[in-house]
């Protein structure tokens, strides 16, 4: 019995015959005698891999079956590769979107605290009353908080301009980014452009967050709050977060 050749060992002669037979099907004519076709490698209808997924179809000759089986396997593998590629792009995009949103949320919360601390908080008012003011401020939109900060003159013009630009990018990310980026799953260059834009948003949010943090630290120290106390409170808050994660 003649040993069967696996489909991945198609040689040039077989491939030429394959191309010729494909032309046969398109033009409705024969280009190889039947005897020549029997020289091509055979592929079992229930062979390895995707062969088990082939439909039961009657073929005019062993060669025609070989070619169609090979074509089906290659097309199926190509489809699978494209699906995996799209899944990888989706994972990369959603990860970048999520991280950018997290950075923005931290900045929004810190900005509200900054506004309350510099304009509404009173010395000796107590933690409960101060937290109530912060919660009320954080319930407002990011844009409203920035307008209050700018109106109170708490940030220089350059920082205000950066906040305004970031606010515009934040609104785009939350409300229009998916509509404007539907091709990122199908086009690698579109995915790279979107991720680069998201990284700029996340980096700018972090930079402004550091600025707000430095201003808060300077303000509290100016009003008699020691760095040791701030460090101790930060440590306690971090421990509370970690304990909550453990639960």
How would you explain this protein's 3D organization?
It is a single chain. By secondary structure, the protein is mainly α. The protein folds into 2 domains: 72 residues, no CATH class; 145 residues, no CATH class. 72% of the residues lie in helices and 0% in strands. Helix 3 packs parallel to helix 5, helix 5 runs antiparallel to helix 6 and helix 6 packs across helix 8. 17% of the residues are buried.
In short:
The protein is an all-alpha fold. It is 72% helix and 0% strand.
Mean pLDDT: 77
Low-confidence stretches: 1-15, 28-60
Global morphology: elongated
> In total, how many domains does the architecture comprise?
2
Rg of Cα set? 33 Å
Secondary structure tally: strands: 0
Number of helices: 9
Strand fraction? under 5%
Biggest sheet architecture:
none
Order of helices and strands: HHHHHHHHH
Distance between the termini: 67 Å
- The percent of residues in helical segments reads over 70%
Structural class by secondary-structure content: mainly alpha
């Amino acid at each position: 019995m003649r040993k069967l050749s696996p489909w991945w060992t198609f040689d040039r002669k077989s491939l030429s015959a394959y191309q010729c037979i494909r032309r046969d099907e398109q033009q409705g004519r024969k280009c190889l005698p039947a005897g020549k076709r029997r020289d091509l490698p055979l592929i079992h209808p229930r062979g390895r891999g995707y062969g088990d997924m082939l439909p039961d179809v009657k073929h005019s000759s062993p060669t025609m079956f070989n070619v169609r089986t090979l074509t089906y396997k290659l097309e199926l593998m190509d489809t699978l590769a494209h699906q995996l590629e799209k899944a990888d792009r989706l994972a990369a995009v959603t990860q970048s979107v999520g991280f950018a949103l997290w950075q923005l949320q931290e900045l929004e919360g810190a900005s509200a605290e900054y506004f309350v601390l510099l304009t509404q908080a009173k010395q000796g008012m107590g933690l409960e009353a101060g937290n109530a003011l912060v919660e009320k401020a954080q319930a407002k939109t990011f844009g409203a908080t920035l307008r209050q900060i700018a109106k109170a003159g708490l940030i220089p013009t350059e920082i205000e301009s950066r906040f305004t630009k970031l606010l515009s990018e934040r609104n785009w990310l939350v409300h229009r980014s998916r509509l404007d980026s539907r091709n990122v799953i199908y086009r690698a260059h579109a995915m790279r452009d979107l991720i680069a834009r998201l990284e700029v948003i996340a980096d700018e949010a972090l930079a402004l967050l550091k600025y707000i943090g430095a201003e808060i630290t300077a303000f509290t120290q100016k009003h008699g709050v020691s760095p040791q106390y701030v460090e101790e409170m930060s440590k306690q808050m971090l421990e509370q977060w970690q304990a909550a994660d453990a639960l």
